[in-house]
Amino acid sequence: MRHTSRREFLLTAGGAAAGMALASMIAAETARATPAAMQEAIRKVVGSASVKKGRVKLELPPLVENGNTVPLAVSVESPMTAADHVRAIHVFNEKNPQPDIVSFRFGPRAGRASVATRIRLADTQTVVAICELSDGSFWSASAAVVVTLAACLEEA
Amino acid sequence: MASALINVPARARRGEVIEIKTLVSHAMETGYRRTQLGALIPRDIIRRFVCTYNGTEVFSAELHPAIAANPFIAFSTVATESGTLTFHWTGDNGFSVTESAPITVDT
User: Fold this and answer.
1) Distance from CA of B9 to the nearest CA of A (A)
2) Which residue ranges make up each domain of chain A?
3) ipTM value of the model?
4) Tens digits of per-residue pLDDT, A74-105?
5) Average per-residue pLDDT in chain B?
6) Contact A111 B18 (CB under 8 A)
7) What confidence tens digit (pLDDT) does each residue in A28-39 have?
8) Do B68 and A103 touch (CB under 8 A)?
9) pLDDT above 70: residue B21
10) Do the Cβ atoms of B61 and A112 come within 8 Å?
11) pLDDT at A29
12) Which residues of A touch B30 (CB under 8 A)?
């Protein structure tokens, strides 16, 4: 029987461990949205309409320690009447596994187009909010966030 | 058992815009996390939230895995009449929670 030396054993074990780590890194890498995927998701919502900058106020902390819960507040100045109201606000990101974060739907009964929630961010990135008004126009705002501890991809 | 926390003002004047805060306990498992053995944990999230005021929908939201665990949503509505506000969350694996809160509107 061939005797395995301690050095050989460590070499093979180390190689196997490195291989496994690499495989899991590749798996993690594939589950990523890109800025292009975000643009595509935005296109799916707005269709062929043009998106103008402004009117939307997106509040996110510029620096977050924990990407697992990031406070987000979006609001749009609108009289919220039957003739002129905000129909929806959609929020997108560019580096989470999926580009969509949330969609809020309003009617004139909402009174005020202002929402707050908590989101997950997998990396330092730009978050975009797009609002749809009752006249069919789209407006956007974006916010850059620096994340030190990422969400979503850690082991359970 | 899932449970929800709701904050609605008990009284309001007619036409006043009131703020409503909701929180429901749910892990919001993204479906992208792995166990230490590398097995993918299946997705289990709340997909939809609806608020109705005496039967009329006033606000709704579609949630994705990027919403943090125990989804918190704060929004507004106009106090039009006395009655009940009903909150309904639905999601993966047949998740469904309904909660309601009464409101008295002074004229």
Assistant:
1) 15
2) 1-30, 33-149
3) 0.90
4) 999 999 999 999 999 999 999 999 999 999 99
5) 93
6) yes
7) 444 577 888 888
8) no
9) yes
10) no
11) 47
12) 97, 120, 152
Q: Note whether A114 contacts B76, CB cutoff 8 Å.
A: yes
Residues of A whose CB is below 8 A from B37: none
A33-149: CATH class? mainly beta
Q: What is the pLDDT of residue A1?
A: 52
Q: Which residues of B touch A98 (CB under 8 A)?
A: 64-66
Chain A residues whose beta carbon lies within 8 Å of the beta carbon of residue B44: none
DSSP secondary structure letters along A46-110: HTT--EEE-SEEEE--SEEEETTSEEEEEEE-----SSS-EEEEEEEESSSSSSEEEEEEE-GGG
Q: DSSP state, B92?
A: G
- The answer to whether the CB atoms of A111 and B17 lie below 8 A apart is yes
The closest CB to that of A101, out of B32, B67, B77, belongs to B67
How far apart CA A93 and CA A39 sit, in angstroms, is 10
Kindly list the structural domains of chain B, giving each domain's residue range(s) and its CATH number in brackets, ordered by start.
Answer: 4-106 (2.60.40.10)
Say what the pLDDT of residue B107 is: 80
pLDDT band at residue B72 under the 50/70/90 scheme: very high
From chain A, pick out residues whose CB is under 8 angstroms from the CB of B52: none
Pick from A131, A110, A133, A79: nearest CA to B52: A110
Of the listed ranges A68-72, A148-152, B63-67, the one predicted with least confidence: A148-152
Supply the pLDDT for residue B12.
Answer: 94
- Residues B71, B78 contacting (CB under 8 angstroms): no
CA dihedral for B26, B18, B8, B57, sign (positive or negative):
negative
